[in-house]
Backbone:
């Protein structure tokens, strides 16, 4: 069986992004870039051992590799070429058949990219994932450059170990190449270009970190829940609706404050996270909830969303009644709901309609409310 080792190059000191922590140790989606790269490559069934090249005195690497098997670290040199040579030296005692040399700061490498390189190595001595260049190219003197003849290249760059090891051993100590394919080219090895992937970018600049974060957080889904509630009118002075007191000379009958608007909304939010309904969590049979302010039900539902790592994005409430008049209170309702939900006003809608005097709302026997809630949740 072909033995395949990998070298992860992580000897950079991170000067380019300015922080104290080298870029490969900065977290994206809560996990250091190098650990993501390690996990992405170690998951490949054909890679059996790993050498990580780190900077001298690197204080971060021990925390990254704790708990993994078959990982060695070596200290890199002043250039990428010297660092890779240190990695190859570590493998040379018990040389693998193939070696994949990969940037520690390319966490989005896929099995497809790795497989493409490994497969190409059955035909050639060196292989590199590459992408065409979509933009037109000009040299600085204004001449057009034929982009069909150019590729941008990525890692892992793969080699027959004996060939690339010989090429590196033949180099002067000061030799510095842009990458390892460059060394292979200088040594006259035959090289294949394999399929790269735009997502296999090197996380280097602040905008790369922002892009990486965005890619990782796209692993979410949008859920919409709906809620519906009805309460009967009864004698009273003040009606609570959508968290706002309306002095209309009658009220809604119910165990709590009977705020049908907030009840429908709380149920919509619970629906978006498939977490039952407010009757499950606040049973009307429990005297504890007698006369309770319905804020509690809404806040409970929002808390459940947060426990699931979700974010409430938008809510929409429709009140269905002949009376009281909703329009004079609509903005106060939106503001109250926005405050309770922690949403900007632009993401809170309150609407009202009648049923053209039809049905129980038409006859003025009660009021109905329906609501929808949109929530972004981790997949
Ligand atoms: Mg209710």
Residues:
């Amino acid at each position: 069986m072909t033995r395949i080792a990998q070298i992860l190059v992580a000897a950079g000191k991170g000067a380019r992004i300015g922080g104290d922590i080298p870029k490969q140790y900065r977290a994206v989606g809560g996990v250091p870039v190098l650990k993501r790269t390690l996990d992405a490559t170690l998951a490949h069934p054909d890679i059996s051992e790993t050498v990580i090249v780190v900077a001298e005195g690197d204080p971060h690497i021990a925390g990254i590799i704790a708990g993994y098997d078959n990982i060695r670290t070596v200290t890199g040199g002043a250039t990428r070429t010297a660092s890779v040579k240190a990695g190859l030296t570590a493998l040379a005692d018990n040389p693998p058949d193939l070696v994949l040399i990969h940037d520690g700061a390319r966490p989005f490498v896929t099995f497809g990219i790795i497989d493409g390189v490994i497969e190409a190595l059955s035909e050639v001595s060196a292989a590199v994932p590459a992408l065409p260049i979509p933009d037109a190219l000009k040299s600085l003197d204004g001449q057009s450059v034929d982009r069909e003849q150019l590729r941008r290249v990525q890692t892992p760059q793969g080699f027959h170990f004996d060939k690339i090891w010989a090429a590196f051993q033949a180099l002067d100590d000061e030799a510095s190449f842009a990458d390892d394919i460059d060394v292979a080219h200088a040594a006259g090895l035959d090289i294949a270009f394999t399929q790269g992937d735009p997502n296999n970018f090197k996380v280097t600049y602040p905008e790369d970190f922002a892009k990486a974060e965005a890619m990782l957080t796209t692993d979410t889904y949008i859920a919409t829940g709906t809620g519906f509630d009805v309460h009967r009118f009864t004698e009273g002075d003040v009606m609570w609706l959508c968290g706002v007191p309306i002095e209309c000379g009658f009220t809604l009958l119910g165990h709590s404050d009977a705020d049908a608007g907030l009840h429908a909304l709380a149920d919509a939010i619970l629906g978006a996270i498939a977490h039952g309904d407010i009757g499950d969590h606040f049973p009307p049979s429990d005297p504890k909830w007698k006369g309770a302010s319905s804020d509690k039900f809404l806040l409970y539902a929002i808390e459940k969303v947060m426990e699931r790592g979700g974010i409430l994005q938008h809510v929409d409430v429709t009140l269905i009644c002949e009376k009281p008049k909703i329009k004079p209170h609509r903005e106060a309702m939106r503001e109250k709901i926005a405050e309770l939900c922690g949403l900007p006003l632009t993401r809170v809608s309150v609407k009202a309609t009648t049923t053209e005097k039809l049905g129980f709302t038409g006859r003025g026997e009660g009021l109905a409310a329906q609501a929808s809630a949109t929530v972004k949740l981790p997949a």
Summary: The chain has two domains: 4-217, 220-378. The longest strand covers residues 220-235. The pocket of magnesium ion is lined by residues 229, 231, 254, 260, 263 (CB under 6 Å). The first helix runs from residue 33 to 42.
